[in-house]
Amino acid sequence: MATDRRPDPESLLARARAEERRAGRGRLKVFFGASPGVGKTYAMLEEARAKRREGVDVVVGLVETHGRRETAALLEDLELLSRRGADYRGVRVEEFDLDAALTRHPDLILVDELAHTNAPGSRHTRRFQDVEELLAAGISVYTTLNVQHLESLNDVVAQITGIQVRETVPDSILDEADDVELADLSAEDLLTRLREGKVYVPEQAARALEEFFRKGNLIALRELALRRTAQRVDAQMRGYREEHGILEIWPAVDRLLVCIGPNPAGARLVRAGKRMAASLQCDWLVVSVDVPGQAVSEPDRAALAQNLHLAQELGAQTASLSGHDVATELLRYAEAQNITKVIVGKPTHGRWRDKVFGSTLDALVRGSGDLEVYVISGDDARPRRKTQPSVQRSPVAEYVKAALVVAVGTVLGAGVFRSLSVTDVAMVYVLSAGLVASRYGRGPSLLAAVLSIACFDFFFVPPYFTFAVTDLRYLLTFGVMLGISLAISGLTLRIRDQAEAARQRERRTGALYAMSRELAGARGRQEVIRIVGHHVRSSFGTDTQVLLPDGAGRLVVPSGSYVDDKERSVAQWVFDQGRPAGKTTDTLPAAHALYLPLLAASGTIGVLGALPGSGRELDEAMTGRLLEAFSGQAALALERELLAERAQREQLEVEAERLRTSLLSSVSHDLRTPLAAITGAAGSLLDEQAPLAPPARRELLQTILDESQRMNRLIANLLDMIRVESGALRIQREWQPLEEPLGVALIRLGDRLKDRVLKTELSADLPLVPVDAVLLEQVFVNLIENAVKYTPLGSPIDVSAASDGNLVRVSVADRGPGIPPGEEERVFEKFYRSAGAPPGGGVGLGLTICRGILTAHGGHIWAENRPGGGAVFQFTLPLTGPDIPALPAIE
Amino acid sequence: MAEPLPVVLVVEDDSQMQKFLQTALVQHRYRPVEASTAREALTQHAGHHPDVILLDLGLPDGDGIDVARTIRAQSRTPIIVLSARGQEQDKVSALDAGADDYLTKPFGVEELLARLRVALRRAARPMNGDDSIAGFGDVRVDLEKREVRRGKEVVHLTPTEYRLLTTLVRHPGRVLTHRQLVREVWGAHTGDQTASLRVHMTQLRHKLEKDPARPRHLTTEIGVGYRLQID
Q1: If exposure means fewest CB atoms within 10 Å of the residue's CB, which of A48, A144, A241, A653 is most exposed?
Q2: B140 and B207 part of one domain
Q3: What pLDDT score does A382 carry?
Q4: The whole model's pTM is what?
Q5: Do the chains contact at A737 and B190, CB–CB below 8 Å?
Q6: Domain boundary residue among A324, A343, A376?
Q7: What CATH number is given to the structural domain containing B218?
């Protein structure tokens, strides 16, 4: 049956993605060992030397010889990268110099001790992050790692050796390493080496290490290392099989579900899940169930977020479910996800609670059906932090009010006491103490309780008006009163805390929603940036900056931003790597602000920077996740805008292209036509074979002259157009009477006006106008020329000008056919020639030039149809300009 | 024996343009001398003592304005500048540097000849040739009596208008830049401000021109200055 097993498309896709990711990346080889001293560094150096002999460009980034001569000898002829000095608490430490390595960019670099924690002030907190960056830059890396530093085995090792190792490395690094070589040494041999002093033991840690290097420990660690390596080999084997479609053995696929709750114990469950998933070679999922209305303290919530993060780091899929009944939700999810095994934590609360509220575990097991449910001890090495209800100082006013309530209670009690028994008076006090407890903080409640008891004792318990108590039964009454009010106040405080936390969450979720709603309506990238900045600022109290790259991929910092050069380089790193960095992260934590990449479908499109306001800190767990949600929204909106911008730009380019084409065809046609006439005429004149009669010669010569002049006008127009378009139009405004440019225009038009009645009507009070005379003359020439061109011979043309407030209004009117309705604006477009244009007219630039000139003067021009027929072109010129220095009159 | 032909130095680097000018000049009884660089222009000027110089402003080895300035420092030979439209500032600079007139390319032969005639006539007049009576159109200016008549009627002019008119009359046919006019009328210490000049010019036109909107004699050289057209 299993003859034609092909790998399933999903896994093929995953493989393709992994390969794609790996393309261009360096290769990582990990020299893996059970403990210090097994010879990892030695093996690494030997192999590096072999590589070098093969001609590979090898550099030693950082290798600790710890004074061992054999190791040092291996280093001798290898190139050593200089180290970076760093001051850590006054002690000079030497660190691996990441930037030097990236600059040197060898084929292969050796970086010892993958689990090392960098000195503060380094770019990354951890060395494995340095290594990741090296790999991403295409540099292959050799490194060493001990089994106790592996995240998933961390607690197991701690159990075996009794030493908790703090520096852990995510398993994914080992899993995704291209090669893992196990440096193995039997426990006896290792102990021998230790005795011979061949294993480096720092003096201050000598005692602890003695503890560590016990034979039993070493055997257990060796087994762990061997098993972990075997697991990897197994995974490789599976990968090979998948790749080649070999699937003879294909066990029913297990899927493992780990349920964690909002408490620190979840970490242990996650690690257990990882180990089980690894040994079952199956997918695993980690979920938490959020019960609406259930109180969860902030530290617990933070622990939950951290554990989910840990799960992701260990390779699990994570999800947060929500529902009133944890068991039901889990079972539903398990069914939907084809889960076969479930891991839950052992309950830590007392049995009575299950009796009263029902047990989640019971319900889970009962409803599990085919599911296997594993219950694992949820105890953690770390003591569980007791959730402290926030103790808030109650203002003095609350104490006063508490005392007042008790006083009122006493008066009431006195009233009741006349007609009823002392027990009823006690009830009145309980009521007043309860009232206080339900409204105010713990202090006032306590005061109210004590005061109630005192007053009750003093006024109503015989002997009256003393604090003495003769009947001991009253002591019980006192106790009950105190107990009730403490219980109520405790409850009140809890509810208040929860309400506050809920309000905060709600406010932020609300803000996220508000932002996405506003973003949906945003147009333009500036608006998106403004909206994002506004919402992040109001939700987190941070100074916010969205940074976008320029064409070369360099982030551009808007002026006035808090982002200085140093911060910009952090942001740039985030943009290049697509990972968060800065404050509260592991990368470049010395930065003032937190930077998140804006990840969109097309990759990283920008960076969101959040600078905590003065005196405020970013609340790591919550803010981080929520801020990521904000940046996700921002990225989507920004990408939408960037795409829209690009589309618009392309549209504009198409438009410009169309215009260029029409310009070219128009210009080439309009220039070539007169040129053809000139060439033809000149050719005929030169033709000696067929001499022309004098009248014919004259006619041809006249043609040459006319056509040259026509060409001259065309070229002048084109040049003016280019000047207007390119912004090279330099205006030299001088105050002058409009009469002058108009007069010059009329003279220049000369013969073309000879069959026309042109009436000029300049009002007598027309002031001087600040204009560039040369340009204004051009406007008059173009407008009057147009009027001549488009109107029948002999029809009148009227030019008039009058001042109108602080501007001058000029109009050129004709009695021609007018402008086709709806084309009043189009006539000003470039190369627009209306349908009625006479042949041999201009290129359609005259009016465009007029508009350009007038706009440059701060004026306007428009066209209308004239009442009674014809067209009228009107323009205005502002009367504001440089001062007019008057010259004295001559006497 | 015929009078010697007037010598015209043509400073122009474009060979087609040079050819056209040479042909036109020879045809109309001038003797052209050719120069195509600034350096050549100065040598030819020293060697041939031309009667008129046609000077293109864009020369390969230097600025035509400098050539005008150098020549003006040595002699009073009239200089007519050849330039294109849109280069009003260059024209003004050349005129201020000592050029007498300009021609805007492209120009016709008629225009060229008219300018040459004006330049030669002006050069022929004695330096302080004080014709006491000058005139244009139906206007007569009697410099001795300080009287202006249009036809028979005496035209009343303000002192400024009279100064302006006499300045123009002393340079008939020649372009005077705004700056030159302001200096002549108001004195060397005044600035370049031309608004007053334009106002007075407009008034003068209204008093002396038949159609002030289309002046025939007191013409505007747009962006450059004014010219008194005699004929």
Answers
A1: A653
A2: yes
A3: 41
A4: 0.46
A5: no
A6: A376
A7: 1.10.10.10
